[in-house]
Amino acid sequence: MTTPVVGIDIGGTKTAAALVDRVGQVLERREVPTPARSGPGAVLDAAARLATDLLGASTGPVGVGTAGTVDPATGGIRYATDSLPGWTGTPVADALAARLGRGVRVTNDVNAAALGECWAGAGRDRAHVLLVAVGTGLGGAVVRNGRVEAGVRGAAGEVGHLPAPGAERLRCGCGRYGHLEAIASGSGLAAAYSIETGTHVTGRTVADRAAAGDGVAQQVVERAGTVLGAALAGLVALLDPDAVLVTGGAAGALLPAASAAYSAEVPAGWADVPLLPATLGADAVVVGAARLAID
């Protein structure tokens, strides 16, 4: 039997590691809260401990999907938000290789999720996929023939900073206003609901209230999903993928409106390009990271 590999998911809230077989199935999984406030060294130590628990059954390199923009040449972090304080500039590949005693390959977590979905999820057997991750923020990735199109800076596919109608009063995670992330994300739902009601709640709460019949929450969710779907229709014409996949904690709430807007707006020449929910859930990043290690 071919030896399985280890994939790691480093996020601002949790860090996970999994032993993944050569067809993309998770055999074992470990997870701990990310010690983000303790600094990059503590985060790397936590990731290394999880991986070490699984490495007895694995040989070869380890793959990592992490928050932040990753330099594709070095595996270091070019830029990261405050969800991981001090993460910018961290040499993740080299630092984990030193801790684990083997090679480490690193990519952005959304890139890893896209790799995972194209290997063992909703994008399986598709040559060219755009994946959009709708969580607290909004990320994107493009995979062609099983490989991430990273771009010069490792940030290709970052759809969150496209201009978006209706987001003019909403602040993006980058600090500017009017971007797609500012409206079509968990933080965007929270901000829009706050403007409408003066009530400060999480994006998840907005989605829950919408499902329970809160009229304002329903309007916020509907607007966000409509803007997202229209943007994705335009991106299909630009990128010409086989499919668009949507994943993340806020994806379920936005997908109904997004799907309707996407169908209405996608140009006729791309009408056969489906908009699909991703299927791997919380395992997408570790599975994609494992795929990166195999490659």
TrEMBL record:
Top class in the EC scheme? transferase
What Enzyme Commission number(s) appear in the record? 2.7.1.2
Q: Which GO terms describe its molecular function?
A: glucokinase activity
* Transferase recorded as keyword: yes
Q: Name one Pfam family in it.
A: ROK
Record's keyword terms, sorted: Kinase, Transferase
State the family named in the UniProt similarity comment for this chain: Belongs to the ROK (NagC/XylR) family.
Q: What is this protein called?
A: Glucokinase
Organism of origin is Micromonospora parathelypteridis
